Amino acid sequence: MQQRGLLVVISGPSGTGKGTVCKKLLAERDNVRYSVSATTRKPREGEVEGQNYFFVSEGQFLDMLEKDALIEWDKYCDNYYGTPKAFVDSCIEAGTDVILEITVEGALEIKQKYPECVLVFIVPPSLEELRRRIESRATECWDVIEKRLEQAANELKYVAKYDYLVLNDSVDDAVLNIEKVLDAERLKPSRNIEFLNSLIK
């Protein structure tokens, strides 16, 4: 039976390994695509249009905003970034699951626009382990690390608003649990209305 794809929104504090988990999930599951954002930033060497980003002018981006063509958007370092509705909607209609890695604020905003989306919150085994992971990057100074940990504690207050909680103490286990979430969601009667109606006729 043909089903619409799932919009899966993944959040979690910096350092929980969201990117690593998403990358492995995409590699292991054929029917999943990573959401491609639109940006006014210039392409970097090696970046591919439609794969890394949709590269647009500021005028085009503002036009998308005016036409409500973005699920969410933000401005960072003088460049606009946003998630095009058309890309997400076309994937979902084709039966492809879309993964969107985004902040808590963005996730809750998307839940209002797409009530059927699946919110997954990834957590570390402990805040001590989170600190160790961030420090092991060796890319940030002490005050930035402290700010990230403070932000993590704040983000954890919103976990109850999510549909699923996934512990990332092992990337393989975290990916397996997210795959279980996707499989379980596809078995919900609310996602199989057309099929159920065909049985009743």
Automatic annotation (TrEMBL):
Which CDD domains does this entry report, sorted A to Z?
A: GMPK (cd00071)
Q: Name one Pfam family in it.
A: Guanylate_kin
Q: Where in the cell is it found?
A: Cytoplasm
Q: Which residues form the Guanylate kinase-like domain?
A: 5-183
Asked whether the UniProt record includes Cell inner membrane among its keywords, one would answer no
Q: Which InterPro entries match?
A: GK/Ca_channel_bsu (IPR008145), Guanylate_kin-like_dom (IPR008144), Guanylate_kinase (IPR017665), Guanylate_kinase_CS (IPR020590), P-loop_NTPase (IPR027417)
Q: Tell me if Kinase is a UniProt keyword of this record.
A: yes
- What is catalysed by this protein? GMP + ATP = GDP + ADP
- What's a single GO MF annotation on this record? ATP binding
Summarize where ATP binds, as residue positions. Answer: G12, P13, S14, G15, T16, G17, K18, G19
Q: Name one GO cellular component term.
A: cytosol
Q: Which UniProt keywords apply?
A: ATP-binding, Cytoplasm, Kinase, Nucleotide-binding, Transferase
Which Enzyme Commission number(s) are on file for it? 2.7.4.8
Tell me, in a sentence or two, what this protein's role is: Essential for recycling GMP and indirectly, cGMP.
Q: Which HAMAP family match?
A: Guanylate_kinase
To which protein family does this belong? Belongs to the guanylate kinase family.
Q: What is this protein called?
A: Guanylate kinase
Corresponding gene? gmk
